[in-house]
Amino acid sequence: MTIREVPLIIGGEKVRSKSDKWLDVLNPATQEVVARVPIATPEEVKAAVDSAEQAFKSWSQVSLTNRMRIMLNFQQLVREHTQELAELVTLEHGKTLPDAEGEVGRALEAIENACSVTRLQLGEMANNAATGVDTYTLNKPLGVGLGITAFNFPLMLPAFMFPPAVACGNTFVLKPSEQDPSSTIRFVELALEAGIPAGVLNVVHGDAGVVNQLIESDAVKAVSFIGSTAIGTQVYNHAAKHGKRAQAMMGAKNHMVIMPDANKDRAINDLLGSAFGAAGQRCMANPVTILVGEARKWLPEIAERAKLMKVGPGTQRDADLGPVVSPQAKQRILNILNSGVEQGATLLVDGRDCQVEGYPDGNFVGPTMFTDVTTDMDIYTQEIFGPALCVLEAETLDEAIEIINANPNGNGTSLFTSSGWAARKFENDIDVGQVGINVPIPVPVAYFSFTGSRGSKLGDLGPNGKQVVSFWTYTKSVTARWFEPDHQDGSAIHTTISLK
User: Are 251 and 356 in contact (CB under 8 A)?
Assistant: First the structure.
């Protein structure tokens, strides 16, 4: 297999980096090197920012309609290249092809929301706010935006960032994960093919030094991050220190509550899919379930169904989950799982020694399930980001709500029930930003905003929906009064601030 060299994209062109530091990109199922990605040089990072800054002068003047038309072209190209994009995701990330195809679909939703910019970027107006005075607002682009994305959704996460930012009239520099960059680069190439002008959208690869240089650039006005809590906190604080608008969508410990009146088969299947899909490498996965009352009797059946889930390479379409992204990720996951046994949890399903025929070097971890879990154990307090499920038990819905609200994270939570009363109580009493009712992964469609909360988020505005336009624009208020050409106001000088 030919090993691809992943390019930078600067000024509308693919650029081979002059860096002397390149990283291998591995197929997680085989450890085969499939690509090499550079750590961009300081000169290349500066060139990307300069290109975006220069392009902003003209791009910010392009009409809403023409920006929308480019987004319409983009979504059509992504739709036509779904299979190609999904195969690149599977090759470097490891998620199953059906899951990767689903990711393309979620990316399309975000692009389609950006196609609504002609509606979302409208200002407000009050005619005769005072006598003869009109007041109106303009939602203006900020300048150069910066996006920093994690490995787990190499298409969807960039789609949460640059399409709305660019549609609002900003220019952009994207720093994707170096672990699976090829699908992101192809995604950006399609955006350029759709008509985004040279310099409006740029891509550099790199480490913390590259990120810091980007954040510290005077031209960068806003920073969007999606990834781990530790790195997200550093990025957010560094951005704030340098006067940037910032948002950081970070780690999670999501809970699913199952009531005894829930549809049993649907609840169990959705629980297992949300806990183990994508090998648990989702910030919206459900790594904790709370079985309430008589639902506790379902525990043996949940464990038996978990044991039947199929682990295999992402190219194997009947596999339920593929490998985790890297050997380092696998070892970190195993260390946390081992701590669960050491700290006294009961291991009902053990996927630690998962072997997949024909793939002896793959980063495979099978479905793993613990019961007798307490909230001070590492398997509960840490984000495992692997195919692991902790089972807690509660007598009542109130007790389950109390457990969830005591957890510092607030990305998402779900309740499975047939009771409208229980559902309404849950959605009102729970202190979590995204709630699912009989929905296991409560990420809303992209014309609603992503509203993770508490320890899972820094910044007051999230991606997608209406909030995304608020994040990528600033509001300019205009108060205007116009006089007749021959108007005479006498000699009085007005020293009050009143407009009447």
Answer: no
Average pLDDT of each block of 10 consecutive residues along the chain (500 residues)? 92 98 98 98 98 98 97 98 98 98 98 94 94 95 98 98 98 98 98 98 98 98 97 98 98 97 98 97 96 98 98 97 98 98 98 97 98 97 97 98 97 98 98 97 94 95 96 97 84 76
What is the rounded distance in angstroms from the CA atom of residue 456 to the CA atom of residue 411? 6
- Catalytic positions are 283
Q: What share of the chain is helix, strand, coil (3-state, %, to 5)?
A: 40, 20, 40
**Residue 204: DSSP 8-state:** -
Length of the chain: 500
Q: Decide if 261 contacts 221 (C-beta within 8 A).
A: no
Integer Cα distance of 165 and 144 in angstroms? 9
Q: Which domains does the chain have, with CATH numbers?
A: 4-250+465-478 (3.40.605.10), 255-437 (3.40.309.10)
Strands of 245-249's sheet, edge to edge? 13-15, 8-10, 201-203, 171-175, 144-149, 220-226, 245-249, 457-458
Buried/exposed code over 21-37 (b: 16+ C-beta within 10 A; e: otherwise): ebbebbbbbbbeebbeb
